[in-house]
Design a protein that fits this description.
The chain is α+β, with helices and mostly antiparallel strands and about 150 residues long. The protein has 4 helices and 4 strands, in the order αβαββααβ. About 10% of the residues have low confidence.
Amino acid sequence: MTRQIVKVENKLFNSFFSIFHQAQLLSTFCCALILFSPTISSAQNKNQMVRLAKIKIDSAQLEKYKAALKEGIETAVRVEPGVITLFAVYDKNDPTNVTVLEVYADVAAYKAHIETPHFKKYKSITKDMVKSLELVDVDPIAFATKPKQK
């Protein structure tokens, strides 16, 4: 009986710990929205599509995944006018949990993005690295960033 109680308590603790880390990650993204987005006012961006991609990566392939993601993000931001922001971070306590903040000019820009050769390359390269993917559409509260100082 005592072992069963301990197992239940451990499961509850692990569930709470997981929820805590997800909340912590979400708060990190809120800070990123406030600190780094190239937009100053959300009121002028009603058509933007904003999404969080929550990705679980195979630990044996994490470094390869991070390289592929970095290449895909850098290319998309550089060549696609409708890609406003792509921020990728991983959980310090579990680097296999990756979250990407995606901001597109509008839904059409997102649809164009997923048809690009570089996005298709990313999906092809990473298909066996990704254990799970959850896409969460969100509404921004505020976007702000400081202008780059020279």
